Amino acid sequence: MSSNALPGLQFLDPAVLARIGNLELVARTVVEGFLGGLHRSPHLGTSIDFAEHRQYMPGDDIRRIDWRLYGRVDRYYIKEYEADTNTNFSVLLDVSKSMSFGSGATTKLDYARTLAACLAYFSNQQRDRVGLITFDEDIVEIVPPSAKHLPNVLHALARAAPARGGNIERVFRKLNEQFKRRSMLLIISDFYENPEKIMDAFAQLRGRGNDLMAMHILDTAELEFPYDGATSFEDIETGERIPVIPEYLRDKYRTMIRAHVAEIERLCGDQGVDYWLFDTSMPLDYALFAFLSRRQFLTRVR
Amino acid sequence: MAFLAPLFLAGLVALAVPILVHLTHKERKDVVLFPSLMFLTKIPYQAVRRQRIRHWLLFAARCLALILLALAFARPFLTKPAIAAPTRGLGAREVVIMIDRSYSMAYGDRWTRAVDAAKRAIAGIGANDRASIVLFDGSAMAATESTADKAVLTTAIDRVKPGAGVTRYEPAFKLAQRILSESRLPRREVLLISDFQRVGWDGRDSPSLPAGTNIEKVDLSDPKTSNVAVTSVDFRRDFAEDRERVAITARLVNRSPEPRTGHSATLELNGRAVETKQVNLAANAAATVEFSPAPLPSGTTKGVIRLADDALPRDNSFYFAISRGQALSVLVIDHREGGPSRSLYVERALAIGDQPNFRVTTKRLGNVTASDFAGRSLILLNDSDLPGGELGRRLVEYVQNGGGVMVAMGDRSAPRERPAYASELLPPTADAPIDRTEDRGGTLGYIDRSHPIFELFSAPRSGDFSTPRFFRYRSITPAPGDEQLARFDDGHIALLERKLGRGRVLIFASSFDGIWNDLPLQPVFLPVAHQLAKYAAAYADERPWSVVGQVANLPAIFRDSTGPADAANSADYVAVAPSGERTRLEGTAKRSVELTEQGFYELQRSGSRGEPRTLAVNVDLAESDMAAVEPQLLTGAMVARAGADSASSSVEASTPAEAERRQGFWWYLLAAVLLLLVGETLLSNQLSRRIAVSR
C-alpha cells in the first residue's frame, strides 16, 4: 500500500478482507432503511423481488427451499426474495489511555481501529451507513452514520489518539441521545470497568432497540501477566503506582482477569449482546472470521 | 591463623549482595506501565513477604562462597602457638631503621623524604631505647651499631647518599634479624624506609624476624613516574686500511605513560662529546639512536651515552669501553711442496669475518720459523705435515700455553712421516684415506650441536649440514680424553678435539681445499670456519661493560694467552674506582674486586708500566623500572614469618617447602569456592525450573 493512499486504508488489510469476503454481515435486528441491501426489512412486502440463490445450510427454513431448482440440479438452494434494506452501523471505539498499552509491536488501540476499519468497510460494501464515535471519559469525535462517510470514518480512526482516562458509563448515557434510529453498534474497548456498570451502559443503548456487539480487546500481557522481578506498576490512566512482585501476584491476577472476562461475557449473553474477547496476539483475520461466523450463526438461529 | 593480605578481608562486605538479593528483592528502577491497576490493587499486598528469605540453601551457598573467596585472597597461613611472651607493650625498644639506598631512591625528592622520615624516627627514640641504621641496596650494611646516641644516628644518616645498586630486601631483613635477635630489649621494631620496588622482592625466601617484631613502613613510591634510560649499546666495526671505525647504536627506553619528544642523547668518546642527537620516544616504548661512525684510536676508548636530565639521573648515562685490535691473528701453514696454495677457501672465509676480525698469514711449512708463532691466536695446518725438530717442540709449547691449533687432513698430510712428538698433538691416523667416490660421497651423520662450535646451528633451519659431500677422509682413532664433535655417516670421525695444556687442537678428517669434499662450496662453510677458528683460538667476546654488583676477576682480565700460565694468578693489583678510591689487592686470596660504582674502573697490575685496563660499569637497569610492590604484602610477610617463629624466638629460617605448606591454604579455599559455585549453579537451575513449572 502506497504512502499516499487514503488515510485509514492501511487498516483494510487485503489478507483480512480475503478471509471474510464470503461472509454476510447480516443484522440480527431488522432496522429501518432507505436503500436496498442484504438486511431484512421490517416492512414486509415493500420489496419482494428475487435477489439470489444460496446453498441450503442446516438451520435454514425448509419452506424457503427452491424445489424447482432442486428438481433441476438435485441440490437444495434457498431462494432469497425478501425485501432487504440498509442499516446504520456505528463503531464505538474506546480511545482512552489504557488502550495505548501493548506488550508487543501492536497496541490495543492499533488492533481495535484495524478491526473497526475492516468492519466499517464491509458494512459500507453492503450499502450500510457507517459511522464512528470515539470516546474516552467523554465523547471525542462523532462521525454520523452515512453511506458516504466511510472515508470520514477511516480518517477519524487514523486520527484517534489516546489522551485521557475512560468512563464508559457516562459516555454511553450521553450517546443514548445520539441514536435516533435503530442501529447496529459495535463497541470496541478493553472494558476496564465494573461489569455491572458496563451492562448498565449497554442497557441504555439497547433500550433504544440498537443491536450491540462488544469486542473486548486485551493484550497478552494483560491476560498472562508474564512479568518477573520486583518493580513498580503504574496505571497508564491515573498515574498511580504500586510496588509489585509479579511472581507473588501472577496467579491471583490471572484468576481475577478471567473472572472479569467471564462475568462480562455472561452478562452480555443475558442481555443479548454479542461478546467476543480478542487477544492482540491473535491474527486479525482469524479474529474477524471467528466473530463474523458467530454473528451469522446467531442470525440463523434466531 | 594469620593473613598475608588481611586487606582482602574487606571483601566480606560483598556478603551484602546475596543478602540483598535474597531478602529485599530490590525493585528495578524502570516502572512498568500497565493499563489498569484495578485488579492489582484488589490483591492484598504483603510487604513482609519481600523480607523473607525463600531459598535458605542457595543463600547459604552464596554467602559461604563469598566468605571463602575473601579468605583465600587474604592468604591465610598457620602459625605455631606462641610460647614466648608477647613483646609488644611497655618497655625499652630496639629499633632498626632500614633505609633503601638503591639508585632509584634518587628519583625526585625521594631521598629527602627518606632522610626526613629517618630523622623523625630518631627523634622519637626514648631514653631507654636503642636504634641502629641499616643501609641496603643489593647488599646490606649496618651504618651504626645499636646505640641510644641520637647524634651518632643522625650523623650516619647525613653521610649517606643513594648508591648505584639495585634493591634487594632479603639481605637487609637478614641483618635486621641478626640485630634484633641479639638485642635484650623487650620491644623490637623495624622501620623500613623504601620506595618498595617490585624488583627487590620475589615473594620467596623471606627472612624471619624475631617474634613480636613490629614493622613500620615509610612508602616513598610515587603513583606516577617518568623515566628514560639507556638500556644497551651496540657496536658495528669496519676496517679500512688499518683504520678501525665504530658505529655506535644506543637503545633508549621510555618508562612512562607520557611520550617524550626531542630527548637529547649525546655520545662522548674519551671525555669529548662527539655527537648529539634528538630522539622521540612514545609512551612506554623503546627507540634506537644510531650515531655516525667514529674512528677508534689505539688503546682503550672510554665511551659514554648521556641523555638529558630527568627525575632519575643514574640511568641517563651508559658507560662502555672498547679497544682496537680485536682481530684474531691466524697463521695458515701450507704443505712444504710447491704448487698452488690450497688455503684459498679458508683464507677468504676468514678474511670477511668482522666479529672478530681475522688477520690471516699464509706460509709454506718450509718458511715457518718459531718466531712466527708469537702473537698468534691460531695456527692452521692446512693439509700439511707437522713441523719437525725444534719447530715441532715449539708448536707443542704454543698449544700448552693456551694457543690453538687446527689440523685439516688432505692427501698431502701423510701420517707416515709424522715426527715423534706428533702423538701429543694428533691421534693415530690410517695411512690410506677412505674413498667414498663410488657412492657419491659421504655426509655428516652426527654433529654435537651442544658443543660451542655447533651451538650456533642448533636452532631449526640454521645451517644445513646434509648437503656437503665428503669424497675422501682419513680414519682417525681417538685417544682417551679426545672429544668427537662430528662423525660421518659411516661412523668415522669427522672432527675431533684434543686438549693439551691450556690450549686445544681441532682435527678435521678431511680438507678445506674443495678437493676431498665440497664443503667450501656450501653456504654453511663460512660460519663453520669462523666458529672453528674462534673456538680453537679460545676467543671470547670482549665485554664492553659490566654491571654494578658484578665481580671483576683480575687474573682473567690480565691473562695473556702466550704468557706464563700462573703469572696473572700470582700478581698483585690496584683497582681505582670511578670515585677515585684505590683498592690494593695483594696475595692470591684477593684477586677480584666488587664493582659497586657506576663509571670507569682503572685496573693495574702492580709493578707493571703498561697501560691500565679500563672496565666500564653501568647500573643494573632492573632498578629503573619503578613498579612498586604492595608494602603490606612485603611487611605482612615479615610479620607473618615472625609469628611463625615465635615459639623459639630465635633466628631460624623456615624452608621454602614448609613456608609453602603453611601458606598453601588458599588453594584449598579456592577449590572449595569452585565446588560451592558449581553446586550453587545446579541448585539455582533446579529452583528456577521448579518455579517455571509451578507457573
> What is the fold-level CATH name, i.e. the topology of the largest domain in chain A?
Rossmann fold
What is the name of the CATH class of the largest domain in chain A?
Alpha Beta
Through-space gap between termini of chain B:
49 Å
Low-confidence stretches of chain B: 80-89, 642-655
Number of domain modules of chain A: 2
Low-confidence stretches of chain A: 1-48
Task: List the chains of the largest interface with their residue counts.
Answer: A-B, 34 and 24 residues
Mean pLDDT of chain B: 82
Q: Tally the beta strands of chain B.
A: 33
Q: Decide which structural class fits the backbone of chain A.
A: alpha/beta
Per DSSP, what share of the residues of chain A sits in E-state strands of 2 or more residues? 15-25%
Q: Write the CATH architecture name of the largest domain in chain A.
A: 3-Layer(aba) Sandwich
Rg of chain B is 36 Å
Beginning-to-end CA distance, first to last residue of chain A: 40 Å
* Helical residue percent band of chain B: 10-25%
Number of alpha- plus pi-helical segments of chain A: 9
